Amino acid sequence: xxxxxxxxxxxxxxxxxxxxxxxxxxxxxxxxxxxxxxxxxxxxxxxxxxxxxxxxxxxxxxxxxxxxxxxxxxxxxxxxxxxxxxxxxxxxxxxxxxxxxxxxxxxxxxxxxxxxxxxxxxxxxxxxxx
Length: 130
Fold this sequence. Notes:
By secondary structure, this protein is α+β, with helices and mostly antiparallel strands. 17% of the residues lie in helices and 45% in strands.
């Protein structure tokens, strides 16, 4: 337990530093992302025209799903937030229904931009370099 305590503190520290970096330009958010949760294939593409495509594999029904919608970036109270007008989670514990989804965007000191799925579990989409 002590080992994980230090890892959690480190992740929290990095997240706080990254989130206090000021507003992120929308052009920085545009690109392809891959989820780090390793529970299923879960990819997100954010486009410059304000649309997004979410492509994932649902283990419950054994099918690949693709849906899309609109997104916008909002800087509020020192945090960069991305808002999706409709979203279907690839993770069954979050339900099967579409919902509006707003979450924090982090630019870590090192590494690629991250869009958090669940900060408590450290699940996020990480921007890919290609």
